[in-house]
Specification:
The protein folds into 2 domains: 76 residues, Dna Ligase, domain 1; 118 residues, Beta Barrel (OB fold (Dihydrolipoamide Acetyltransferase, E2P)). By secondary structure, the chain is mainly beta. About 6% of the residues have low confidence. The strands form 3 sheets. It has a 5-stranded mixed beta barrel with strand order 5-6-7-12-11. It is built from 2 helices and 13 strands. 21% of the residues are buried.
């Protein structure tokens, strides 16, 4: 679920931080810049693990700050495909079951990846597994707040840098749903196999 990603950055330290040890000042700046941010094709950054290399620092004319090229390792959330995770159901919609890990919410289990047969209950706003028993079908609801075990089947990264801000500002009044903010990193899950789904389903 968590990996170490090696990165490189030129870190700027302001003059008022010169009394702090360089490693500590750089660590603070890296965490300020990266913690809880998604790096494209890398994952969700959690915290600095260590600094592996510091090159010479430079002060450029007209800028009293120091600039140091640093190589470091960062703890990143990026589960591997087929990894099994535990989360909680945030909500359900016709698009599927939306799952949260507490620190990461952009996980969806689409209808095709639910236990079969399943249906969406409009009244309860929940997906329901129509579990077959010897006495007929038994409805097992996937309610918000329930703990769910799922398999990661896909991941998606999207570039979210703003483009043409002036033009976008002029079209705000005519914006539609397609212009909503992009989610930079999403996971797709599956529960359509024995042992996956709500933990309560498999308890003796």
């Amino acid at each position: 679920m968590f990996v170490l990603a090696e990165m490189e950055n030129v870190t700027r330290i302001l003059p008022e931080q010169f009394d702090i040890k360089l490693n500590d000042a750089i660590a603070g700046e890296l965490n300020k810049k990266l913690a809880n941010k998604v790096v494209l094709d890398v994952g969700l950054c959690i915290a600095l693990f260590d600094i592996t290399k510091l090159q010479d620092s430079f002060i450029f004319p007209g800028d009293g700050s120091s600039h140091t090229r640093v190589t470091f390792r960062y703890i990143v959330f990026r589960p591997f495909i087929e990894e099994i995770l535990l989360g909680k159901i945030r909500c359900c919609s016709e698009e599927g079951v939306h799952v949260s890990l507490g620190f990461f919410d952009d996980i969806i289990i689409p209808p095709t990846a639910l236990q079969h047969p399943s249906r969406f209950d409009e009244t309860e706003q929940a997906w329901v597994w129509e579990y077959e028993t010897g006495e007929g079908k038994h409805d097992l609801f996937m309610d918000a707040g329930e703990t769910i075990r799922f398999r990661v089947t896909a991941e998606s990264f999207k570039e979210t840098c703003p483009t043409q801000p002036q033009q976008n500002m002029m079209k705000v009044e005519n914006a539609d749903v397609s212009n909503e903010a992009k989610v930079p990193y999403t996971l797709t899950g599956s529960i359509n196999e024995p042992g996956l789904g709500l933990l309560s389903w498999w308890e003796n």
